Amino acid sequence: MPKLDWIGKKAVVNHHREVPFHLLRENPELSVGDPGSGNLLVQGDNLLALKALLPYYAGQVKCIYIDPPYNTGNEGWVYNDNVNSPEMREWLGRAVGKEAEDLSRHDKWLCMMYPRLASIEFCLTREHAK
To answer: Is residue 30 part of a domain?
Structure first.
């Protein structure tokens, strides 16, 4: 079976489990529609938002739309999409350690995306719901 591997993978494979759960807070000024409809629109870092869904919605989520950086290296677009922001570099240094100094832009992107995709799996599958 083929396997995708990259620098830093071992450090981030279980990172989504280390991100603490927190509860979503409604913002009445931004809310519309019927509060009992069961629909939510969550804005924020997608890893934190996904972890906020888990306590009440694990296994019940039907659709998740995330807009990750595409890693084209285009820094002059709407946002810097080369996963090289100061926040990302700081997080990679903490999560991956000294090995993070040698990451290519694709290694950085994979390290950033893996925990988010793993959290999506938890939100979409009933087998992970408690």
So the answer is: no
- Where are the alpha helices (H) located in the chain, listed in sequence order? 9-12, 15-18, 46-57, 86-96, 105-124
Write the CB contacts of 67 (distance below 8 Å, at least 6 apart in sequence).
46
Residue pLDDT, tens place only, 48-97: 888 888 887 888 888 887 777 676 666 665 555 567 777 778 888 888 88
* pTM for the whole structure: 0.71
With 0-12 CB in 10 A as exposed, 13-18 as middle and 19+ as buried, what is 59? middle
The answer to the question of residue 72 being in a domain is yes
Q: Determine, yes or no, domain membership for 28.
A: no
Structural domain for 68, as ranges: 9-23+41-128
Separation between Cα atoms, residue 12 and residue 20, nearest integer Å:
15
Q: How far is CA 34 from CA 23, 37, 55, 90, in A?
A: 20, 5, 22, 40
Q: Into how many domains does the chain fold?
A: 1
Of 72, 28, 68, the closest CA to residue 47 belongs to 68
